[in-house]
Amino acid sequence: MSEHYKIAIIGAGPGGLSAGARAAALGVSHIVLEASPTIAKTISQYQKGKHVMCEPGIIPLRSELDFSAGTRESILDVWASGADALSVNLRYNAEVQKISGCRKDFKIELRDGVNVNTEYIVLAIGVQGNLRRLGISGEDYPVVQYQLDDPDEYFDENIVVIGAGDAAIENAIALATHNDVVIVNRRDEFARAKQGNLTDITKAIETKLLDCAFGAVPKSITEIPASDNDKISYRISLETSSGAAEFDCDRVIARLGATPPRAFLTDAGVELPSDDPAAVPALSIEYESNVPGLYIIGALAGYPLIKQCMNQGYEVVEYIEGRHIDPVDQEILWEKLRHIPGVANVDEAITRIQASAPIVAGLTRLQIREFLLDSDIVKIPAQDIVFEKGDYTNSFYSILDGEVKVEVGEPTNDQGITLKEGDIFGEISLISGRRRSARVTAASDCVLVETPKRAMTRLVNSDASARKAIDEIFLSRVIAQFAPQADPAIIDRVVRQTTVEHFAVNEVLFAEGDSGDCLFLIRSGSLVVSRHVNGKDITFAYVPAGHFVGEMALLSGAPRSSTVRAASVTEVIKLTRDVFSLLLESDSMLRERIRKTYEQRAVEQLQMVADSGLGDRFTFLVNEGVGEATDVLLIDEALCIRCDQCEKACAGTHEGQTRLNRTAGPSFDYLHLPTSCRHCEHPHCMKDCPPDAISRAPNGEVFISDSCIGCGNCEQNCPYGVIHLTKPGAVTPSLWKQLLFDTNDSAEPNSPSPDDAPKKAVKCDMCVNLAGGPACVRACPTGAAIRMSPEEFLKVTA
Amino acid sequence: MYHSFIVYKKFYYLKWAVLLTAICVGLYLWHEPPSVPNGGSALGYLLGSIGAALIGWLSWFGVRKRSYHSTTGNVQGWLSAHVYFGCALFVIATLHTGFQFGWNIHTLAYVLMVVVIVSGFVGVVLYRLCPRMMSEALQQASRREILEELNETTANILRLADEVEGDVHDRVLRENQDATVGILAAASREDSGAQAYTGNKHSRKTGIRNSDDLSDHLYRELSGTQSPEAANTIRALLSQLAHKRELTGRIGREAALKNLLTIWLFIHVPMSIALIAALIIHVVAVFAYW
Predict the structure, then answer these.
(1) Which has more pLDDT, A606 or A508?
(2) Which of A431, A556, B20, B168 has the greatest number of C-beta atoms within 10 Å?
């Protein structure tokens, strides 16, 4: 059986539907193939009543279907009725098995055996993938389900949950309150789960909240004939390491993850630049992949926002129909690019950038457009500062026009180096997450491309040559900072002979007494140095990225005098003895500088050994993950009167919602670490933010802007639990009430806002908009609350 | 580790307060009043004005403390100044009286001021002592951790009691009932959890007495039992009961100290307001009967 259409659109999400709607409106022969029984599967799986936002606000909507911010239900209704009104040819439960052929002659094989012949394919399948099925006999019984909407719907059932990932664990624990639950894990531990879920499931198994079958593989599901009671029951058979096992069950919930759509792409012949999940296929300006006639739009192409998907759906049909319309963001892009001297339109500007910025040379024009949309084109007048040494910003710069001067040391004794058109800078902070290591000023009027960290991450993951170029420049500049007088040719030789090594938290780089044959420059992360004194380990130094360790053993030839561990996930550049002696020969001052550092460290070490409590407190903090922080709220319990002024001040300056929880968090030796953002070097929260709403300001704070769409990724990604999704709204009691009854309860959840009000992520923004700095610290009456960096900790608490 | 409000900026505000006090005392000694020293002399008016201004400014602390957007200094500095200028006020206002006291509104205002200042002293002492004692009471753990441990211990006790013959389980259950309510409440709101242990003194005392009875009973059982297994269970039960009592004690001490830290304010703040009212009457009366 075979059918023929001009355009086959795979996936009925916002992109696919919008493409289908445009094709229908133009009267083009088309079909939209959807694997699930519903439109927009990802969105329909959002929790009930979830408010869906329509960022980015500045981009207009270009689609036959309507879309504006609202509840999940209302948006799905609008799309369904819109698609109906236009008679979009939608086919549900049409899972695509295979794509073959090319332009004008594609063949699509569906799971039910139907073949679809088509001239063009639009892939709009998103990144969720199709849910993996059990693949055992009995999997078609109605008791088997692959997702769980609301665990509170089930009571007093025997439920078997299959899987060991986060979804399986969360489902099993949620169900276990009202049901008898067995979780079936193919392996002997829950290695794939997030730390929080791992703790929860281990505890649940220990306390017998639920049962767990480890090392168990499902074999079959059989029906048990109804006996005395009329309810049909089922039995699942497992094969375990200790033999066969069977469970009677009313329900089987299999959470086996999804088949990655990337595999599907590769099968269809689409090339992916790397294995990194963030890498997206290279596409033409018209979204066409390397397979002619195969177009890719939406999240799979690297565009996660609904509005972008819908616009692309519209545009891709226009392109297939041979109409060359400008992309919807043309004007926005021109607004940015018009600063570039001597270009008349967007196309010229892209050509110019492609020619003058080597790191984007390997990208397609569509990728460059995307790169530029994420970036800012900034015009800096001569003598103005681009960034100051010590700033916390981590954006990356490419010079389009003009020159800049880079000064590593003090302006008076350092002439600095000059960078020209085509050069890049800012890579050290981008990679290390630390403060800027140099001051950069415009030597002449210049035009720069300023790209935020997230866009850079996407770039280096999508283009191996860009990654290599940036890594090499980083390495040579870091080594040049370590040995400033060294000959550039020697530095080049050194760069080629170094290796990068990775260390997990608490992993040992070298131990006291080891023989020292190399030194380490910290590329990203941080280290702690400790020594074994009087039967216990005393930590006496914290070394952040950009610094070096292990040099003394190389100079003196003596064994290592201390143990060095990673305080956070750390990457170090290893310099062997031979390489190091090259540098020593080339830079006559290097030996002297290392000796000074050593003396300073020796003094600190003595101080630490004298006050062993200090080392213990430091060890406590490192174990709590402070190693990767840049700014931590630490409370001295010996001064804290538990008045919660810090929380009240936070709430009072942030729409009635406190972003810190004083009582939560661990304590050690009168030092309390409340639950409050630590402004990590490489913020976990920034990893996956679809609207790119999380940024870092020059003074270090990591803050969330109003473009937050409330997806909750940052809340999940934060290992310290400092981000919450809440609705705004506050009522502060009158001053008299506060004075007389001490009931300033604005720190409590208050004034119910309407249920449909959108939830947004909130976290400590270090009072970015407030003169005078963080309200929590300024409002503390006893001076118990202080914010500091791990480096400052040693000074403050000594 | 850090610097408290007392040593704030190396006693910066103490120095100013001492200077102000010294000037006032000097003026008082130097001044020769027309008759006896009193508030109606030229110096009396000056000292009175300084005192009234200080009272106004000291009271403003209550407002500044809650002005979270304010950038005039920080609250720690304000508190440091509040304490030292509060002490200065005591001297200055006393000089203002010319040591004339009587049964009138003027002396009432003075007495109220003394009550406020003395309660403030109590506050300073509590602020210095209690925080450390609270941490010591909890022994490095957070209150939530202790409540969780308490929960687990209670569960252990019930499980062990189940294995002991006789009516031990019932007795344990009865003895636990108050505590269980407390822990459940604690889960919903931390503060009230601790209140459940300390707030109701009667129930706490009964709880302890009951558990003493229970322990006595178990010791008798222990000496009577022949089975080594039963003896082990009873021993474990006794140690869990002791552990629970210790945990309850810790969390109770911490909560009691926390209450101390707020309770003095229930005198300090209302008395300040009364003082301001009395002060206004005092000033109006003085000028009305000039």
Answers:
(1) A508
(2) A431
